[in-house]
Each structure stands twice: as structure tokens, then as C-alpha cells.
TrEMBL record:
Source organism (scientific name): Arsenicitalea aurantiaca
Protein name as it appears in the record: FAD-binding oxidoreductase
GO cellular component: cytoplasm
Keywords, ordered alphabetically: Oxidoreductase
InterPro entries: FAD-dep_OxRdtase, FAD/NAD-bd_sf
Keyword presence, Repeat: no
Occurrences of domain FAD dependent oxidoreductase (ranges): 13-361
PANTHER family per UniProt: SARCOSINE DEHYDROGENASE-RELATED
GO molecular function: oxidoreductase activity
Alphabetized Pfam families for the sequence: DAO
SUPFAM superfamilies in alphabetical order: FAD/NAD(P)-binding domain
Amino acid sequence: MSKRIRDRDGMYDFAIVGAGISGAATAHELAGRGHKVVLIDQYGPASMASGWTLAGVRQSGRHPAELPLAQAAVALWQDLAERLDGPTHYRQVGNLRCARTDAEAERIKAIVGEHQALGLEMELVSGNALRAMAPMLSPEVICASFCPTDGHADPRSTVTSFVAAAERLGAETRFGQKALALRVENGRVAGIETDDGFVAAGQVVLAPGVYGNDLIAPFGYRVPFEVMSATMMRSVPMPHRDMPVIGVANGDTTLRQEVNGEYRIGGGHEVWDGQLALDPWPQVRPRARSVYELIERYSALVPELADVKLDQLWCGLIDQTVDALPVLDILPEAGGVVAAMGFSGHGFCLGPITGQILADLAEGRTPALPIAPFAMDRFGAAADGTGVELHG
Ligand SMILES: Cc1cc2nc3c(=O)[nH]c(=O)nc-3n(C[C@H](O)[C@H](O)[C@H](O)COP(=O)(O)OP(=O)(O)OC[C@H]3O[C@@H](n4cnc5c(N)ncnc54)[C@H](O)[C@@H]3O)c2cc1C
């Protein structure tokens, strides 16, 4: 167990901004290492991307730089519920990525080859083998990649379990409190100015999702990401099927069945127009056209779902960087604060390992996994971009 960085009354060793999966996992990890931790969120646990997400726990389709993190995360997901003593509803049911055209089939074959070369268990399936895995697929699907060690989990349950476990380890939570600015004294981060006073801390971890740049901009930093809005929907509970997560080559449609039988369906994205309703949790409303197009796509992929009754529609915001990789780094010009943002639609699966990496960085240790590809300074003068596709 590590020694506390500082232990003065009223001062935390670590303040973490953001109670999505990244911040909640970090709070749990640091509290478990014996530190005095506070987790701050302007709304509450899983109130933004970590609640809006499709929540695929996927290694396939990852950038080679991200694959080791995804594999390490999947190893942690196996017994996460036991370690948190709370539900995650993790299911390792596999992930099928389908080809609907000859061009997509070529793409899928290439992905399978690349990932096999990187050591990921993955195969190309078609014909009877594919229909046996997913009889509900349209006959139009030509072939698919299959990764048996992928799966999914329930996002709100998982984040809530991380928070509850962190609290049992002594972490404090401040929900409904907004971080306004980092305070840096003598070149070192000293805490956070919030809308409910100053929170003194020996180190600060920022995991604020799409709002990340607001807190680092005063120090000259900006992660070049575009905020994209992805359309999501959920059905009423349906009879349970043994099925993998089903997606497509270009990531514009993904669906899975939740443990209670509801289908969670997502895909398609556009640049966010900045509108967010609070009722009381943050909500981004989908456009009718985007909903219509997603229904058309998923019904073409899984025709039996064309008639399913929809219970909920929403949009999720994605911090899409120019290279579709996150920033996991220390920012020296911001007093050495630890920053995690720009997960580009991949951060749910990574959550458990992100927590360990951010805890290591916050403690001043070198993480065991290679994180150089996630350095802030890789961007140079890169501009924002919208052309990167989502992997679902
Ligand atoms: C539609 C959709 C589908 C996705 N599908 C997948 C998938 O299948 N698999 C996968 O791995 N990933 C997926 N992702 C991505 C994944 O959900 C995110 O990368 C991940 O949840 C990010 O977690 P986070 O904790 O970093 O950020 P968030 O969950 O966004 O949490 C950030 C938190 O910070 C808080 N905050 C921000 N600013 C402040 C402030 N100033 N003061 C206090 N609090 C603040 C917010 O309220 C929020 O709760 C998807 C995302 C979306 C939107």
C-alpha cells in the first residue's frame, strides 16, 4: 500500500473530476491503494458517455496501440463484479462484425488478418457457421469477423459498482458539484476550484469526457477532438437469445441484447450541435432523420427487429480525436495534472485498465502497459477532424 502524498486535515491526496467509468475506476483504484480520495461530478455517476454508451467490451477492431490496453481490460472484466462486490452484468458473448458488401468483406478479411497477426483470437466466419452463431442475421450479410473474447456489460451498473466500492474503501463523493478551474501553485497542482468552494488536493486526475478541454485550456492545452453525437435506442424487453454483439464493418450500426432482454442499438454520428437538456440528467435529443436511418440500417441487418417496440431514444456524445486514440498523460504546464480524455467511442471497455493507468500516473509511477501512443504532445499542430469512423 502506498504512502499518502499528503495527509493534512481537509486535504485530499487525490481529487478526481468525472464520475464516468474512467474517473470512477481511478477513484476505486486509488482508494484501494490507501489514499484519501474525492470523486467530483457536476451531475452524478455515469451521467454522460458512460451512461449513454453501447457498452461493448471489445478488443477486435482496435488500433494496434490500443489493443494491449483492451486485452488487459478484458482480463480485468472477468472477475470485476466479484472484486467490486457489485453488478457489472458483464457477458463474454463474442463480437461479430458483419460485411454487407464486397468492399466491406475485403475490409473484414483485412481486419481479421491484422488482429490474428497481433495475437488476438479472431476468425472469419460465413455461411452455415455464421448463421449458427447468429440466425437472426439478414441473408444479405456476406461474412463476419468473430472475436469470442469480446462481449458487453451494463454501463450504469458497472459505474455505480465502481463508485460504491470506492466509497467502501473510504473515497468521498461530491455529486452535483462542478469543477471550474485547476489551481496551480508554485508550478504544482494544488486542487480544484468548484462551484461549491475550493477542494485542496495533492494531485488531480481529470476524466471529464467531452468537457475535458475546458479545464486544461487556461494552460495552453487542447486535445484536438470533435464532439460527435451518436444515435442510440433501446427496445422493450424481448425473449432472451444467445447472441454476440453484432456490428458492421464501418461501425454505423451495432446492437446487443442486455441481460434483461432489451436490445440496445446504436450507430451513425454527426457533429454535435451543442444542445444538451437537463431533466435533471443530461440528455441529447436525436434527430428524427437519424433515428429513421438507424432503424432502416438495423432492420436490414437483423430483419426480425424491424417490428420491435422501442422504449427509449437518446444520443451519446463522443470525444473523437483526430487519430481515434485517447490522451492518457501528465500535463506539466498544468501543474502536472493527470488527464484522460478523447476516448473516441472506445473508453467503456478500457475503464478498468484506465483506472489502473491513471492511478499509476497520479502516484508518479510508470504504468506497466505502453502508453506513449496516448501522449498529449503527439498531436503537434493537428486540427480537429470528423472523418474518423466509429467502431461500434
Ligand atoms: C453512443 C456511444 C456508444 C459507445 N459505445 C462504446 C462501446 O461499445 N464500447 C466502448 O468501449 N466504448 C463505447 N463508447 C465510449 C465510452 O462510453 C466512453 O469512451 C466512456 O464512457 C468515457 O468515459 P469517461 O469516464 O472518460 O467519460 P464520461 O463518461 O463522459 O464521464 C465524464 C464525467 O465528467 C463529468 N464532468 C465533466 N466536466 C466536469 C466538471 N467541470 N466538473 C465536474 N464534473 C465534470 C461529467 O458530468 C461526466 O459524468 C460509446 C460512447 C457513446 C456515447
